[in-house]
Design brief:
This protein is α+β, with helices and mostly antiparallel strands. The chain is 35% helix and 14% strand. The protein has a four-stranded antiparallel sheet with strand order 2-3-1-4, sandwiched between helices.
């Protein structure tokens, strides 16, 4: 087996789109290790999180999604990271990319460049933090893993969104 994965599936969500207690399950510090169980759904916890949020949730429209996508493509070109797939949805982003850096650094760069693009284009308030903290960095060790992740990102996200820019 290689010392380094062939690629990574990096995922991050918009602020307020996936709160603790969400019916889909969620992760906190105690439930963040790969393979550990999600937090159980808890309507009261989700409601408390929504009420205590410092800002409202962010939903990306087609113009915002295009700006985020362009920023991610730009990061990959600048860093010379082979980009295999990217899909920017209304409340989350998936990227399949090969790296010569730690995936957490790429996650940080993707979010920073995307935030800059959203702010420069006046698509979010400059005081708004568009993303939840952290994200997911799945290691893809085999070419079949990369192919599956690319298929998931490009074909497994549901119907194309209105006014979606060409991929």
């Amino acid at each position: 087996m290689n010392d380094a994965p062939l690629a990574y599936l990096i995922t991050f969500t918009t602020f307020g789109s996936w709160l603790h207690g969400d019916p889909r399950g969620s992760v906190n510090r105690e439930h963040s290790e790969p393979g550990s169980p999600f937090l159980l759904p808890d309507e009261h916890l989700a409601m408390a999180e929504a009420i205590s949020a410092r800002q409202s949730s962010l939903v990306l429209d087609s113009v915002s999604r295009a700006a985020v996508r362009s920023a991610i493509v730009g990061v990959c070109a600048h860093r010379q990271w082979p980009l295999h797939a990217v899909n920017v949805r209304t409340n989350h982003v998936h990227v399949v990319v090969s790296l010569w850096a730690k995936p957490e650094a790429a996650l940080h760069d993707f979010k920073a460049y995307a935030t800059r693009a959203l702010r420069q284009n006046k698509l979010v308030n400059p005081t708004v933090s568009p993303w939840t903290s952290g994200g997911s960095t799945r290691y893809l060790w085999k070419s079949s893993d990369v192919e599956s992740a690319c298929r998931y990102v490009t074909e497994g996200q549901g119907a194309d969104l209105p006014s979606e820019p060409p991929q």
